[in-house]
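[Discussion] Sanity-checking designs against the backbone

I'm trying to build intuition for which residues belong where. Below is a C-alpha cell string of 108 positions. I'd appreciate it if someone posts a full sequence so I can compare it with mine line by line.
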C-alpha cells in the first residue's frame, strides 16, 4: 500500500540535512537506519550505508532509484542455497572439475 498523495513522500529530515550543502565525493558513506525513507533527487550521487538488521549495506543512489525506498536496495535475508542430494552431487562434480582443470593447467 502506498503513501497518500496528500501527505507526500516520506523523507527523513535528518538525512536531508546531512545531504544538503555537501558534495557527494566529500560525504563518504552516510549511515542510515531509516529503511522507509524515500530517495529524494537531492540524494543522487551519495552513498548510504543502509542497516539491514545486522550490517550496513552500501547503496549508491542513482537517478533510477528516485522515488524508491532505501530499504529496497538492502536485503535483510541472506539466501544460502537449496539443499538435498542433488545439490551435493552437483557440488562434488563441480569440485572435481575444478581439480582436473587445475591439474591440466599445472601440467601445461
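Best answer:
Here's mine. Compare freely.
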Amino acid at each position: 500500500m502506498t503513501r497518500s498523495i496528500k501527505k507526500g513522500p516520506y523523507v527523513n529530515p535528518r538525512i536531508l540535512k546531512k545531504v544538503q550543502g555537501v558534495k557527494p565525493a566529500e560525504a563518504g558513506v552516510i549511515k542510515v537506519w531509516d529503511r522507509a525513507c524515500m530517495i529524494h533527487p537531492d540524494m543522487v550521487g551519495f552513498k548510504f550505508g543502509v542497516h539491514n538488521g545486522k550490517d550496513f549495506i552500501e547503496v549508491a543512489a542513482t537517478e533510477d532509484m528516485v522515488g524508491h525506498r532505501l530499504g529496497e536496495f538492502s536485503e535483510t535475508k541472506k539466501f544460502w542455497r537449496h539443499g538435498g542430494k542433488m545439490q551435493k552431487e552437483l557440488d562434488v562434480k563441480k569440485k572435481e572439475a575444478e581439480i582436473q582443470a587445475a591439474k591440466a593447467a599445472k601440467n601445461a
